[in-house]
Every structure is written in C-alpha cells, then in structure tokens.
Amino acid sequence: MSTKHWTTLNMPTLLGKTILVTGGNSGLGFESVKAFAEKGANVILACRNLEKGENAKTKILDIDVKGSIEVLELDLMDLASVKSFANNIKSKYKQLDILLNNAGIMATPYFTTKDGFEAQLGTNHLGHFALTGLLLDLIKSTPNSRVVNVSSMAHKSGLMDFNDLMFENERVFKTFKAYGQSKLANLLFTYELQRYFEKNKINSIAVAAHPGGSNTSLASHLEKKWYFKILSPLLRGIMQSAAKGALPQIRASVDASVKGAEYYGPDGFNEVFGYPVLVESTPASHSLEDAKKLWELSEKLTGVSYN
Ligand SMILES: NC(=O)c1ccc[n+]([C@@H]2O[C@H](COP(=O)([O-])OP(=O)(O)OC[C@H]3O[C@@H](n4cnc5c(N)ncnc54)[C@H](OP(=O)(O)O)[C@@H]3O)[C@@H](O)[C@H]2O)c1
Question: In the chain, how many domains are there?
C-alpha cells in the first residue's frame, strides 16, 4: 500500500499490543485510541476525568472495534496521581508496546500544578517525563516498544529559559511563551530519551509528532478573548479534523518504518494540514546541552530518576 498519503488504512494489525494514550478522552487522543482499538490493540485510555473517559470509551465501542479499552485515572498536574497511575499499570500489565504522551493544555492563564510547576510545563512536559520514567521497566522489558511525544509547531517559537523555567520572575505572564517552551521541551526530551535508549542498549525508540492545526478543544482557554472570537471562525475553516490531525502521532506510534528520534507532521503548507510525513524540528530542539540540562532538572523537579 502507498505511504505517500499515509492514513489509518496503512496501519498494521495491533492484535496483542498494549498501548497507553494520555488524554485519550478528547481530540487527538480520542482519535488515536479509536484507531488503535479498531486495529485490535488493548488500549489504556488515561484521563483526569473518569466520566469523560468512560463516555469516550462508549462512543468508540459503539463502532464495534476489534480491541479493548480500559479507562484509568491520571492527572498529569499531580505527581502523586502520576505515581499511583504508574503503579496501577505495573500491577495490571506485563507489557507496554506504545506509550503515547498526548495530553496537553495550551494558553492557560498562569497557575501552578499541585507540585508548584507552571501549569503548561508541568502538564505537557514534567508530568509526561515522570510518567515515562515510572513506566521505564515495563517499556524496557517490552521488545520494540515506543515512546511517542506530541509536540507542536509552537516549539519553533519556544525558548528554554533555565533561569526562570516556571515564569516566576516575569511581571506579565506570556502564556504562548510558556506553551512554546513546553512544546520545545517535548522534543528535547524525545531526542534525549532516544540517546538514553541507545546508550543503555534498550530495545525501544523515542519518536515525536505534531498535528499541524486541528479542530479540538485545545484552545478552550482562549474562547473568552476578543481576538479569538474574531479569529476563531477563520481558524476553524483552515484547521483539519481531529481525525486527520491525529495521523502523525498514529503513524509515529505504529508504522514499522519509523526510527528513533524521528519527528512526524502534516505534509501540507507550513505543516498546518495534510498527510503525515517526516518533518524537521528546529536547531534549538536538537541542542545537546539544553536536552541534558532539561533532563537533569526534570529528574530533580519530579523526583523520578531514569537510572
Ligand atoms: N489541536 C491542535 O491544533 C494542536 C496543535 C499542536 C499540538 N497539539 C497537541 O496535541 C495534544 C492533544 O491536544 P488536543 O488538540 O487533542 O486537545 P484537547 O482536545 O483539549 O485534548 C487534550 C487532552 O489532554 C487532557 N489533559 C489536559 N490536562 C491534563 C492533565 N492534567 N492530566 C491528564 N490529562 C490532561 C485533556 O483532558 P480533559 O478533557 O479532562 O481536559 C484532553 O483529554 C496536546 O499535547 C497539544 O499540545 C494540538
């Protein structure tokens, strides 16, 4: 089958595979859970609101999929929740073929997670860093496993400010600066994780993906802003469906030709829409120095060590 226009039709069977999707109740996560379950995987739908998770599961099972879905509670804004979720997974599952770190928030006002991290960095990067580290034994012991991190075009404007990672010293909080930093962190983490796997001869790969611009609930924090009310109808017209936007992360998760440290995104104009292909991330995302710094800091902040 042609991979020029890669779609869910190109997916291999996933019978016997265990796949964990964070933020699986909505948007791109929902579409990913659906696609994996349709191909026969046992999918763990991780979400912070069990009712939303169960509703998503019911919707997917209504279309008669081959696989199964288990809904489990995970709040990435709370390290205690991440730890108890990881323990729950380790007690229930003996393999984890794919960990899709998809959940995220964007353009929120300034607030902190339960552990005092700026919310976007805390959810998008630190929560997933802790989760991946806590599931490492399971990932390591599953042959050919994958960790897939969902980044964004917004990583291009991201800057790692290690002197003020949590925006504590800013007089005015710039929410898109915080989002950009968190999405750059997703890529720095992906590439460092791949180096970690290689150095330790672990039979797993780390990959990243971005969905271009996709119609989901991600911009819900902007809905009351005057500029968003004007721009929203226009943006909704340009943006692709969540199902199409999820294709890069689905491809990164299951396509047999994918290699470690690759980055998938849409092939259309400016990577805003289209079919999933290999794309480039910025030189800043490949900084060895920043990746190492972020890794060490993330271990310290979350208390999760990869050694
Ligand atoms: N849509 C786009 O155009 C776009 C572009 C670039 C990158 N992305 C990335 O794509 C990913 C998925 O976003 P989406 O567009 O599908 O948005 P979405 O529809 O808002 O979905 C985000 C998911 O993350 C979950 N989530 C948020 N905070 C969480 C927490 N503390 N713990 C656990 N789950 C949490 C949400 O749960 P609730 O339903 O409970 O809020 C929801 O399930 C994000 O990483 C985002 O940065 C999206």
Answer: 1
pTM for this one?
0.97
How far apart (Å, rounded) are the C-alpha atoms in residues 64 and 255?
Answer: 23
Examine residue 156 and state whether it is found in any structural domain, yes or no. yes
Its domain, for residue 75, covers: 15-301
- List the structure tokens of 196: 């970690």
pLDDT tens-digit series, residues 194-236: 999 999 999 999 999 999 999 998 988 887 788 777 787 777 7
How far apart CA 188 and CA 186 sit, in angstroms, is 6
Q: Hey, which bits of the chain come out as E strands?
A: 18-22, 42-47, 68-73, 98-101, 145-150, 204-209, 263-266, 276-278
Ligand 1 pocket by Cβ (under 6 Å)? 22-23, 25-29, 47-49, 52, 74-77, 102-106, 123-124, 150, 152, 210-211, 213-214, 216-218, 245
CATH number of the domain to which 95 belongs: 3.40.50.720
Residue 15, Cβ neighbours under 10 Å: how many? Answer: 11
- Which tens digit of pLDDT belongs to each residue from 167-193? 999 888 999 999 999 999 999 999 999
Angle of CA points 234, 236, 237, to nearest 5°: 65
